[in-house]
Design brief:
Layout: E1 4-6, H1 16-20, E2 26-29, E3 32-35, H2 45-49, E4 55-57, H3 61-69, E5 74-78, H4 92-101, E6 105-108, H5 110-126, E7 132-133, H6 138-147, H7 161-173, E8 178-183, H8 187-192, E9 203-206, H9 207-217, H10 235-238, H11 248-253, E10 255-260, H12 262-273, E11 280-285, H13 304-317, H14 327-331, H15 351-360, H16 380-388, H17 398-415, E12 419-424, E13 429-432, H18 434-440, H19 444-447, H20 459-467, E14 471-478, E15 483-492, E16 497-504, H21 506-568
Parallel strand pairs: 5-6, 5-8, 7-11, 8-9, 10-11
Antiparallel strand pairs: 1-4, 2-3, 12-13, 12-16, 14-15, 15-16
Organism: Alkaliphilus metalliredigens (strain QYMF)
Keywords: 4Fe-4S, Iron, Iron-sulfur, Metal-binding
Protein name: Putative PAS/PAC sensor protein
Length: about 575
């Protein structure tokens, strides 16, 4: 069951979670992060490392509140590492706070720790195996079951202190109670929901969730009165990893080895798998430093060593006396657990397939495989494997993306038809592209490091430096070079430079001048034509006028003759 989820809106694809995830149980594909349940060991390291709060734990506080509001008796099983998570004057203030929230009974989970320690001691006395591995840390159990299943034979088939105490509480107060484990471990949420443990611990809260609940309820621990635990274990059960007492004979057979952190745990498991070690009793915790610095601890500024001192001081105050009221009750509880084989079968890809992916990431030679771990994978070949398995994309290789970006940048800079050059705040040229060499008729090695005034006046740059305002689209003519340029001077504050991008519009300007001359000539020709037409029209009109007058005279005479002839008849 998945207890950590991603918020796509908050995820910035920074790859921190993949880098910290030892089993590589996170896939980021098409900018979408996802936890792969079959590979996840529920360590919670991804949740801790995420500064964007893109990973969140499924809230179980509402579930506990619902149980408190019902008629059920609600019992808290509190991890003995709580003094490291909260600042208080006395540990009894924590009991009081939990009672205020509505818990009917508050017991320390170290009672379950005592039960587990005693079970370990019996197992150590009887075991004939080459090595033994404690099973109190669920995350490390998942690590072995999933990635080192061949070592399951060494795992002691005993439940964790949380499960042992849950069973004890159900036997003591009745199976209808609601047991809530409160501790520094995210993996406990998964453990409680394992099929073999269902119904033992009903809810699991981390100290992070408890801290938030205290805030909502307005509870300040340091202001509360004290109240005693309803049940508390021995000092031996409070120590995690557990510290079983073994006989002198057993001490010579098994050396107690404590390892914290997943990387160190994997290292010793590798050695056990290769049979390089024997005669050890291994107690490992997935969190670096153990439960005191668990992934369910509040994300505050409290130093690890401060946490550790608080817990150590608390344990020193604890009486060594066994507080079990009923030893027979303890002895009647089965602490056995099933060790499962959860191995993940991964398809093995050929060298040819891997080489093909590497080439797609611009890794053509061995020297190109930087193994920088920026993508989260230890080697470039592991990264290629993840690509082939559909868990990542080849374009998420940082050196690849950088090389590609720089390549495109260089192509643009070197082949742009525009003159592009960079000038520092001291007005000395830093970069000069080939088009700039052509326009300003000077080589890069002759101008680089020199003041820009060596080629053009500095006033346009000085104005941008003074006003911090970019100059855009300014037309400037440089007769000494026979060019007319459209200048853009960009102020780059972060880089402490001015970038000049100048477009040569000389040809266009010449074309414009030629077009204006053609227009003027055309207008002159048109005017001449008009003038000539006017003269012709006037001449025609003049001729037409004379002809009309003569015609009028002739016709009048003809009329008179005709009229005269009529009179005579």
């Amino acid at each position: 069951m998945k207890f950590i989820n991603f918020s796509k809106e908050k995820c910035k694809n920074c790859y921190k979670c993949i880098r910290v995830c030892s089993p590589k149980a996170i896939s980021i594909y098409d900018d979408r992060a996802e936890i792969l349940e079959d590979r996840c060991i529920s360590c919670g390291e991804c949740y801790v490392i995420c500064d964007q709060n893109a990973l969140y734990i499924k809230d179980k506080v509402h579930e506990v509140k619902r149980a408190i509001d019902s008629n059920k008796k609600v019992v808290a099983s509190l991890s003995p590492s709580f003094p490291g998570a909260f600042s208080m004057k006395a540990t009894g203030q924590m009991v009081k706070a939990l009672k205020i929230l509505g818990f009917d009974i508050v017991e320390e989970a170290s009672i379950g720790g005592d039960m587990v320690v005693m079970a370990y001691e019996e197992h150590l006395q009887a075991s004939q195996k080459d090595n033994l591995i404690a099973t109190s840390c669920p995350s490390n159990n998942y690590l072995i079951e999933t990635y080192y299943p061949e070592l399951r034979k060494y795992m002691i088939p005993i439940v964790s202190p949380m499960i042992a105490h849950g069973k004890y509480l159900k036997q003591k107060y009745g199976h209808d109670i609601h047991v809530v484990f409160i501790g520094p471990c995210i993996a406990k949420k998964v453990e409680a929901y394992e099929r073999q443990h269902q119904g033992v611990v009903d809810s699991v809260l981390t100290f992070v969730e408890l801290e938030q609940w205290f805030g909502e309820a307005g509870i300040n621990l340091e202001e509360l009165s004290l109240e005693e635990f309803d049940g508390k274990g021995r000092r031996q059960g409070q120590q995690i990893p557990c510290k079983p007492n073994v006989s002198k004979e057993q001490k010579t057979k098994y050396e107690r080895v404590i390892v914290t952190g997943i990387s160190r745990s994997k290292e010793i498991l590798e050695s056990l798998s290769k049979k390089e070690l024997s005669g050890i009793f291994l107690e490992s915790a997935s969190c670096q430093g153990g439960c005191i610095d668990g992934t369910g601890m509040p994300k505050d500024a409290t130093n690890y060593y401060v946490r550790r001192k608080r817990v150590k001081d608390y344990i020193k105050e604890t009486s060594k006396t066994v507080l079990f009221e009923d030893i027979k009750l303890k002895e009647s509880i089965s602490l056995s657990r099933i060790i499962s084989d959860k191995r993940v079968e991964q398809k093995k890809h050929s060298q040819e397939e891997i080489e093909k992916v590497l080439k797609s990431m611009w890794k053509y030679k061995k020297e190109d495989e930087l193994n920088c771990d920026a993508c989260g994978y230890r080697t470039c070949r592991e990264k290629a494997q993840s690509v082939l398995q559909g868990r990542s994309q080849s374009n998420r290789c940082l050196p690849f993306m950088r090389a590609k970006a720089e390549s495109l940048k260089n192509v643009i800079f070197d082949h742009s038809p525009n003159a592009i050059f960079m000038v520092g705040y001291d007005l000395r040229v830093k970069e000069f592209n080939p088009s700039s060499e052509r326009v300003f008729q000077i080589k890069t090695n002759q101008i680089k490091g020199e003041r820009v005034q060596k080629i053009i006046p500095e006033d346009i740059f000085e104005k941008v430096l003074e006003t911090k305002v970019n100059t855009v689209g300014k037309k400037i003519e440089y007769p000494q070079y026979g060019v007319i340029l459209i200048a853009n001077i960009i102020y780059l504050k972060e880089e402490n430079i001015l970038m000049a991008i100048m477009t040569d519009v000389t040809a266009a300007e010449k074309n414009k001048a030629e077009l204006a001359r053609v227009k003027e000539n055309t207008l002159n020709v048109a005017q001449d034509v008009i003038n000539k037409q006017m003269r012709v029209a006037q001449e025609i009109a003049s001729l037409l006028g004379e002809t009309t007058a003569e015609t009028k005279v002739t016709l009048t005479k003809l009329k008179d003759i005709v009229m005269g002839e009529r009179g005579e008849v």
